[in-house]
Amino acid sequence: MSPPCLGQRANVTPTGADVRCHRVHLLLGRIAYNAPRKASMSPDPAAIPAEPYPFVLDPSTTALVIIDMQRDFLLPGGFGALLGNDVSMLAKVVEPLAGVLAAAREAGMMVIHTREGHRPDLSDCPPTKLARGNLDTPIGAEGPNGRILVRGEHGHGIIEELAPIEGEIVLDKPGKGAFYATDLELLLRNVGITSLVVTGVTTEVCVHTTVREGNDRGFECLVLADCVGSYFPEFHEVGLQMIAAQGGIFGWVASSQDLLAHLPTPAAVN
Ligand code: TIU
């Protein structure tokens, strides 16, 4: 008979057998509450190579979240440009993200597009956000693509390459995080979503805030390095490192190619 393991013995020095036994208890605990398994514990064909360790993805319990791929951030004359940024820095995200979006649709994954912006009367825009940056053309002012960061304006819309299709959720958010002052958590929980593939812009602002919010709510977050972008390359790099550091303190980081290789191919999906 094997000796009682760590969870059953007190005041003893753990042996190798104890540690293995403890792992089994941890694994059983995961199964008991139906949490996603970590690939490092049990090799799984659905495990995506990722930092800090492989990410097990089940398309039926995973949502693709596309953060703020709006003209206001990606095109000249929008909010991003008015903040003094070179918006061309974000263009490279579009092609790989379009590939991931197509694959997610084929795999039947839930797709959520977010848009940062405000009601036309700006009643949901904190005065602090309105004043921030002391901009000559602030939020709500008229720009080349309509009123800056205002819902319903051309600049507020998602770029054509990633346009939502019927059945996909378009979530308007007043803040940087997608969970703040929205019904995102309710929408995800109602259909049993436990993991998020997070993409969009910008890496260190709205993507990071959303990943932190999702992580605190118990969602497993995988960020696709080439499908998130920043006006600041150094913030992008460090932002990704911050997510995966400390054993995945906020989540995982992988490439879109690694995700695509692990999603069902179109032929395999009815
Ligand atoms: N300024 C900046 O980098 N980002 C934002 O204001 N919003 C988002 O990240 N979407």
Q: Which distinct ligands sit in these coordinates?
A: tricarbonodiimidic diamide
Q: What is CATH's topology name of the largest domain? A: Rossmann fold
Tally of helical segments: 9
- Count of extended strands: 10
First and last CA, distance:
49 Å
Characteristic key phrases:
six-stranded parallel beta sheet; 10 strands; alpha/beta; two-stranded antiparallel sheet; 270 residues; 2 domains; binds tricarbonodiimidic diamide; disordered N terminus; globular; Rossmann fold; 17% strand
Care to describe what's here?
With 270 residues, the protein is α/β, with parallel strands linked by helices. It has two domains: 1-34, no CATH class; 39-269, Rossmann fold, CATH 3.40.50. It has helices at residues 16-32, 71-74, 79-82, 94-106, 127-131, 184-190, 203-216, 233-248, 256-262, and strands spanning 47-48, 55-56, 62-67, 110-116, 142-143, 146-147, 169-173, 195-201, 220-229, 252-254. It is globular. Mean pLDDT is 87; it is low at 1-41. The protein binds tricarbonodiimidic diamide. Tricarbonodiimidic diamide is lined by residues 68, 73, 83, 116, 176, 201-202, 205-206.
